[in-house]
Amino acid sequence: MGDVDRSWFKIANVDIEDSTQFMACPTLWVRCGAGSRLPAKNRTAGRHAFTLPADGDYDFLTYYGSLSLRKWDGYTTARAYALDVLGVGKYDVTFEYADAYAYPSTVQDGPSFSFDDAKETLHRLDPGIGSNLAQGDAAVEEGTGAVASDPTTSECDGAAPADAASADAAPAMRRNAHGVLPVLVGFHIHTHGDCAFRSVNWQALATVTQDVKLAICTTTFKKERYIERNVRAIRDTILAQSNARDDAHRADTHDLVGDHFVMNVVDNGRTLDAGKLEGGGIRVFPNPNAGGAGGFARGMIESMGEGVTHAIMMDDDVSFCPEAFVRTYNLLSIVKDEYRDAFVSGGMMSMYDVDIQTEDTGFMTYGGACQATKPPLRLSLVHEIVHNETFEPPAYRPECHDTFQRYAAWWYCAIPMTQIRKRGLPLPLFVRYDDVEYALRDNDDATRRFMTMNGICVWHEPFFMRYDGAVERYQTTRNSLIIRAASDAAPMSDFKQMITHTFKLELKRLNYDDAQLICEGIEDYLQGPDVTFAPGFAERRFLQTHKSCEKCVSFDEARDALRELGIDIDDVEPVDVFHDYDRSRSERMVDLVTYLGHDVIHRGRDAAESGAPAAGAGTDARVQKVAIMSRDGGAYQPGEIRNADVIVAVDVPNHKVAIRRRDNARFHALMDRFKNDMRQVESRQTELREAYHVAADYMHTRGAWEHYLGLGAR
């Protein structure tokens, strides 16, 4: 690939937002020095315009402001980098480098530049990192540093100023004494007066490898408030740029993604006003309520005829910064051939603690659970931003081989259409594991690469805020068995062990309703794909299980019932909810046999046959022990709840409770039912595997989904 193929290409905007997220945590974008006033967005001057007040220090070595050098260098054809600054005022710019162990005190300074511009001027600044030369390339000369130009002389998108350094003058890539690149490159600006910037962005000297067109595929069910807000945001930011431009500054302020972008909204609830939302690249498709899997399948189908190169699966109930789409487009435009079939997996940031990333990719553990690949990271901190870009799962360790089973969740995931044509469409699982199975369907490691990048993310409500027994017990159980049978997804994971553990956990916590849902999930799987893949089945069972799962009521609704148990909910603090007690060894042995106090000798049958209430299932006068615990899906506080007649399970973040009562008869009935179900799973394994495998091959096809969704001939 010769130098003649390369040109300057804008890869990322350095911006100031006026969003809820920015106001909650501006340090994701910029850190203000002591005495400095907060920068302000200036939308009247342009999409990326902002002002910096006088006599301030502004550090852009941040999640959105810095250049993720190692990732751009690893994923793309980029060979040199520059910072373009288009603004007016008197200010200094100093570059910064952060390595893998960077804290603010260890960040190294790079070149500095000073400007005093009476009129708006474009400067292309050399950060001193230069080009990454392939072995055998000729040596290059030192770069020329800052180059000034009237912005109206740019001739094309991403073009350099007329007198800027060419590809042949790119300096050698900056490396440390061990030949390692900085992880991040940032900069800080000191203002000597009020300064106005129309655009600040990172440029790369790169070869454009493909003409990218993105389609957002988002599916919604009666969440008008969320989806209408997101459609407006897309129309007003990304798509608006393709319709109305300031041509004089287009090279430096325009994002190319606006010219290569469509949005397909799949309306599973059929409640949206399509006439109000459609137009300018946005289309709405009424769809049967086939869950997320059916909605995303419809989005993929509609994208096939639009000349799309990548379909972005995105949840409807997220918030986002438009820069996520810009960086996704730019990354894919100059991606290396070896990453051309990779998924781009966006980070999930907390809707409430807006700088905390909970996941960007996940993996299926040996025990059959979904696990975030990275630890939670607070991305307002320099060392956590660096860690986000350097972390690699330790798959080289035998106990961590399960990290090979990585997947990208569909709150934000850009999938190449080449992979959609190769893998086909999702399975009709309604919700849970459709994205996991899709990523793990093809076991060829070369086609299961994932790209992640600072600035490519969405904000989403944390999972602990939205625990749903019908999803976490019925759907997870049924669908884990289906994906193993259909495509041998996550072959290292023991889903039967996971199901058994979860079932026993619910019995110990006296949550018999949700334990029953686990049995129902197994039994529906045992009916085979002719039933589980039949149109309408998944929706019907989703609604039924929501009616039969454990009920949770507000503190106010439960107040009287709790008082009868001797509990004043107003006196209960979170520390009381999460508290546990140590157990002796003998207590642990008894608890293991009795499932924390169930009657395993009489099996509750005498009471059931006589019509008398089982222990703990009668009047409040029979209650001997009341325990309080967390209602979190994985909570287990055996010292607190052992031998309890009543458990008050508190949903702390949502201010709700569930009251559970010990029922020995139901415990034994469920245990017998579960054992029988699992015996059938074992004995019918070969038969079910063959049936689901054949059915999955069919369901991967467009024709199968068009029939499933009732679309008719197309």
Structure report:
The structure is a single chain. The relative contact order is 0.09. Helix 11 runs parallel beside helix 13. The strands form five sheets. Strands 1, 2, 3, 4, 5, 6, 7, 8, 9 and 10 form a ten-stranded antiparallel sheet that branches. Helices cover 32% and strands 21% of the residues. The protein is globular and about 90 Å long. The model is unreliable at 132-144, 150-172, 244-249 and 604-621 (pLDDT under 50). It has 714 residues and is of the alpha+beta class.
The residue fraction in helices comes out at 25-40%
**Could you give a short account of the major beta sheet?**
10 strands, antiparallel
How big is the Rg?
29 Å
Low-confidence stretches: 132-144, 150-172, 244-249, 604-621
Shape: globular
Amino-to-carboxy terminus distance: 42 Å
Number of strands: 28
How much is the average pLDDT? Answer: 88
Number of helices: 23
Structural class, by secondary structure, is alpha+beta
Amount of beta strand: 15-25%
